[in-house]
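[Automated response] Your request has been received and processed.

Submitted sequence:
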Amino acid sequence: MDVGFRNPAERRAFRAAQLSPITTSELLPVADGAVELVRVRLDAETAATDDLALCLSDAERVRAGRFVFERDRRRFMVGRARLRELLASRLGTRTDLIELEYGPRGKPMLAGDLAESDLRFNLSHCGDVALYAFSRGCEIGVDVEAVRELSDADAIAARFFSPRENQSYLALDPRDRPLGFFNCWTRKEAFIKALGEGLHYPLASFDVSLAPGEPAQILRVGETPGHDVGWCLQSLVPEPGMAAAVVVEKSLSRA
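Generated structure:
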């Protein structure tokens, strides 16, 4: 259906953004509804990138042009085009009317006339897999990583995990440590992205669970125990060999 397209270029841009299949899941029930998680493949054909560019803002096109490798440029363009499509469909508007701005630490948010919307979102990608998380009226963060062995994993854990997390990590069977490491990393990353602080937030100031098979939880933030911190955490496996986490602010009506 071409209703709403103003010209052939906009139609091509929309079709290019449809190249990646999506899977949608609803997680973490809150008083206002639920978090919606969307998985997208970013492996569009290279030939589609010219059409995808029509979906992007001038700043995004400039940023896309800075990538050295075509693969990375294509992933960025597909990811941003899909984000605009997903936002537009949830806000009942057109992709070209979506305006974005970024917080002091780089968290994306709606701008312009849509800034007053209660729609919150976050995104993360690893390779050709992107995850988009949406919520209504509650801040949200998401992160995804490929589970793999890192030669310096122990040193990274000692530096960036909290003492409690590092102790839990070192207690794991060596075969379980790669998954434990990325369980911890994605959960911490999702939390600081929800806060909008990025890596400026002290990573040792809060604890998350990490052991494979145990429930995903925020255990502590500062001196506050996890059940009182006002945030929900859930882990997921978007594709085999990957670990991901989503953190969402609890509705004030439930706090």
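Summary generated for your ticket: The domain at 143-249 is CATH 3.90.470.20 (Ribosomal Protein L22; Chain A). The chain has two domains: 16-138, 143-249.
If you did not submit this request, please reply to this message.
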